[in-house]
Amino acid sequence: MSGKLQLPPLQILVVFEAAARHANFTAAGNELGLSQPAVSQRIQMLENLLNGPLFERRHRGVQLTESGNALYQIVRASLNDISEQIERTRHQRSTLRIDTDMGFASYWLLPRMNAIQALIPGVEVQVSTSPNDYNFRDSNAHLAIYFGNGNWPGTQSQKLFPEEVIPVCNHEIITEMGPRPAPAALLSYPLLKLPETRPQRWLTWEDWFRYQKVPAHNHAGSRTFNAYSLVIQAAVEGQGIALGWRPLISALIERKQLFVCGPEVRTERGYYLITSGVKPASTQQQKVTRWLLDEAWDFHHSSALLPKYK
C-alpha cells in the first residue's frame, strides 16, 4: 500500500485509547490533563469521522461498542508499539563510524582507540574495514581514512600522512646484511608484498628499485599475501623483507621488532581523512577530526627528528 494514510489526528486516538481503557471520560481526562467535556468532544469527533458510536454512555461511565472494541484493540497495540520503539531509541547509544583499511586500522587506529573514545564519552565508536578503495556512495561512515590521491567525488579530504615507504626486516636479516646495506643487497632475500592492483594503488617493489636505479629482474623470489598485516608478520618472523608504510610500521621500528634496511621513497599519494561534502559534521565528528589532524601533525614533527637512512 502506498500514498497518504487515512488517519484521524493522533491526539484523538490517544484520547480514545485512554477513555476505552478507563471506561470513563473523567478518568481519561485526569490522565491526559483534559476536562471531561474536552474528552467527550474528541470522542464525538472520532465517532462522526467513523459514522458510528464507539461507546455506550452509561450513568457511571462508558462501555465500548463492538466496533469500538475492535478499534481499541488496534489502537492500543499500535500506540504500545510506538511507545516501546521510542523508549528503545531513547536508550540507544549514539555512534561514530570510521571506515578505513585493515592495515591502517590494525597498526595506527587501534592503538589510539582509547584516546578517541575519551574525546567522545558515551558515543560508541565503530571501525569498519575494507580492502577496496573508498566509495562514498557505498559508505555509511561518519569519517573515513583511506589511501589514495585525495580525489573522491562528493567528499572533502585532508591529507593525514604522505606515502613514505621504507624497506624493513627483522633483527636476524639486518644483522646478516650489516648496517646501511646497499639497495641491491635486498635482492638476495625474499621480497614480501601485496597482490598487484590495476590501476596501481600503492608503491610496489618494482617502483622502489626503480627509484634506487637498481635492476630488479633477478632476485631471490617473492611471497605474496592478501593482507598487509600478513606481510608485516612475515617480516617480523624473518621470512623476507617488506615495504613499510609510515606511520603504520613506526611503532614496530621503535620496539625494534623491525629495522629499516633501505632508503625511503615518498610519493604524492597518502592517507586522507575523508568526510561528506554535503552533510554537516556533528560535534563528535568535529572533535575527532581535529584530534586526527593534530595527531598527524605530531607524528610528522616527531618523525622529522629521527635519524634518516643514508
UniProtKB/TrEMBL annotation:
SUPFAM superfamilies: Periplasmic binding protein-like II (SSF53850), Winged helix' DNA-binding domain (SSF46785). It comes from the Bacteria. Residues 8-65 form the HTH lysR-type domain. InterPro entries: LysR-type_TF_proteobact-type (IPR058163), LysR_HTH_N (IPR000847), LysR_subst-bd (IPR005119), WH-like_DNA-bd_sf (IPR036388), WH_DNA-bd_sf (IPR036390). Belongs to the LysR transcriptional regulatory family. Pfam families: HTH_1 (PF00126), LysR_substrate (PF03466). Keywords: DNA-binding, Transcription, Transcription regulation. One of its GO terms (biological process) is DNA-templated transcription. GO terms for molecular function: DNA-binding transcription factor activity; sequence-specific DNA binding. This is LysR family transcriptional regulator.
